[in-house]
Amino acid sequence: MNGYAHMAVLTIIVISAFYAVWFRDLLSSVISLAVFSLLLSLEFFILQAPDVAIAEAAIGAGLSTAIYIIALRACKALRKPNGGEGR
Amino acid sequence: MNPLSVVVRTICDIFAWFMGIFGVYIIIHGHLTPGGGFQGGAVVATMAAFLLVAYGGKKVLSFVRPGFYSGMETAGLLLFITAGFLGMGTTFFYNFLAGRGGLFGAVVPIGPNSGILNSAGTISVMNIAVGLEVIGGLSLILIYMFKGIRLFDDHAGRSESGHDR
């Protein structure tokens, strides 16, 4: 049972990390990175480290996503479909 | 920075309070359950990030000044150092409050039990101090990033409302 949970979570981690690199839209990439961080905290919880899991969920999925979104709004790159390249 | 749509603001009104209460719960149960000062402080600072993203920096900064968070950070540091030096009669960081009765020093009964909340002595005080410190520091990072946006915002000449895309 635990092995299957490991396999599923690690597979979705690899998929979300691939999409974080693959998307041209930067907001989609940031959301994919937040999903990656949330699943990483779930993996920490499966590996019986709930302390690290709480820190990863708060810092990785909450604060760093907010900081990335603030930085994207400051660059005005949110509204361009190509992520601000090429103008 | 203008506020986001009404859906985002309603969800923020409902859930931000639960995030704050959960962070404070993690801080004050730091010696019994997983988590502690840093983790709970990060959760409460996520509430500040939530409010800033949903309502925009101008409205949040109108009722919370950065000096409030700076004072919270200073209070956390001073509380931690004071709690360390008050045990100086025996050693540095000596747990002088444990087992004395009162708010922080309840006596733990012998035998298996599920843990008593106010029995940790100075460790609870230090968790609260680290929690105040982390809330102040991480919220100050977010607030100053919003102030940095406002520097570039005056020559933009655009009106943003509704959804973000």
What is the compact description of this entry?
The complex is a heterodimer of chains A (87) and B (165). With 87 residues, chain A is mainly alpha-helical. Helices cover 78% and strands 0% of the residues of chain A.
Question: Helices, strands, pairings?
Answer:
The complex is a heterodimer of chains A (87) and B (165).
Chain A: H1 2-22, H2 26-46, H3 50-75
Helix pairs in contact in A: 1-2, 2-3
Chain B: H1 6-28, H2 37-55, H3 57-63, H4 66-85, H5 122-152
Helix pairs in contact in B: 1-2, 2-3, 2-5, 4-5
Describe the 3D structure:
The complex is a heterodimer of chains A (87) and B (165). By secondary structure, chain A is mainly α. Chain A contains three helices and no strands. Chain A has one domain (2-75). Chain A has helices at 2-22, 26-46, 50-75. The N and C termini of chain A lie far apart (50 Å). Chain B is mainly alpha-helical. Chain B has one domain. Chain B has five helices and no strands. Chain B has helices spanning 6-28, 37-55, 57-63, 66-85, 122-152. The relative contact order of chain B is 0.19. The A-B interface holds A 27, 50-51, 53-55, 58-59, 62-63, 66-67, 69-71, 73-74, 76, 78-79 and B 1, 26, 34-36, 38-39, 42-43, 45-46, 49-50, 52-53, 138, 141-142, 145-146, 148-149, 152, 156, 164-165.
Average pLDDT value of chain A? Answer: 85
Shape of chain B: elongated
Outline the low-pLDDT stretches of chain B.
155-165
**What's the domain count of chain A?**
1
Percentage of β-strand residues of chain B = under 5%
What is the terminal separation of chain B in angstroms?
Answer: 14 Å
Radius of gyration of chain A: 15 Å
Q: What is the number of E strands of chain B?
A: 0
